[in-house]
């Protein structure tokens, strides 16, 4: 290296302020580039993190998903109860007997055992999570009301079928079908929008799974 250049190089090492404007400019570009690269990486990783959170949210099932799925399985039949209130005007006695007892079978064979399993397993877990022994008392009252209306509906249908299509008795069936469907759908909404989020915030997926397994065996016991 020529002596002058060697001296400049030594002085640059010894004194960084002595770097040439050209070198300073390159240094600035390098630093800016590193900063930009750093910023880009930070942005990329934050986007990636956000995507993972979003993907994770989509992929993560809520702990209470099994009971929400059970409700989704029951709701079409509850809606059929409501529809029957309108459609039965077109049914002859045989069709009315088939359709209305099919509804009773659903209510007694699937809906009420679902409610009983909730009272044995789900509601105590919610009471505990809320730290209040009576937290689900109003929901148990809903179940009692639903159960007594199902029993009353069975009796009203039986009487109506004896004299089908008697206007007064048919009207009683219509009123009861319609009211029962409304009460059940409202009850499901209360469970899904108010009670289940409490468990979602308190239970892990594994704890919830154990709870729903207990519900399933209770369900089998009641159906
Ligand atoms: Fe319920
Ligand atoms: Fe339910």
Number of strands: 0
Distance between the termini: 96 Å
Kindly report the name of the CATH homologous superfamily of the largest domain: nmb1532 protein domain like
**Could you describe the largest sheet, including whether it forms a barrel?**
none
- Quaternary organisation: single chain
**Bound molecule kinds, no repeats:** fe (ii) ion
Helix and strand pattern: HHHHHHH
**pLDDT averaged residue by residue:** 81
Describe this structure in words.
With 223 residues, the chain is mainly α. The chain folds into two domains: 3-57; 64-222, Four Helix Bundle (Hemerythrin (Met), subunit A) (Up-down Bundle), CATH 1.20.120.520. It is built from seven helices and no strands. The protein is elongated and about 55 Å long. 18% of the residues are buried. Bound molecules: fe (ii) ion (FE2) (2 copies). One fe (ii) ion binds at residues 71, 114, 118, 188, 191.
């Amino acid at each position: 290296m020529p002596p002058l250049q060697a001296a400049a190089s030594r002085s640059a090492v010894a004194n960084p302020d002595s770097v040439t404007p050209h070198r300073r400019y390159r240094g600035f570009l390098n630093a800016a580039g590193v900063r930009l690269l750093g910023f880009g990486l930070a942005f990329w990783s934050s986007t990636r993190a956000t995507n993972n959170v979003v993907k994770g949210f989509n992929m993560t099932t809520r702990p209470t998903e099994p009971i929400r799925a059970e409700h989704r399985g029951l709701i079409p039949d509850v809606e059929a109860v409501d529809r029957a209130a309108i459609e039965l005007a077109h049914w002859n006695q045989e069709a009315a007997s088939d359709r209305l007892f099919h509804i009773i079978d659903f209510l007694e064979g699937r809906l009420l055992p679902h409610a009983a399993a909730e009272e044995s397993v789900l509601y105590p877990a919610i009471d505990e999570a809320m730290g209040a022994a009576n937290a689900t008392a109003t929901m148990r009252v809903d179940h009692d009301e639903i159960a007594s209306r199902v029993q009353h509906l069975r009796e009203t249908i039986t009487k109506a079928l004896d004299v089908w299509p008697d206007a007064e008795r048919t009207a009683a069936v219509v009123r009861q079908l319609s009211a029962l469907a409304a009460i059940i759908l409202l009850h499901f909404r209360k469970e899904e929008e108010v009670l289940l989020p409490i468990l979602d915030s308190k239970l892990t997926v594994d704890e919830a799974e154990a709870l729903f397994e207990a519900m399933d065996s209770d369900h089998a016991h009641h159906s």
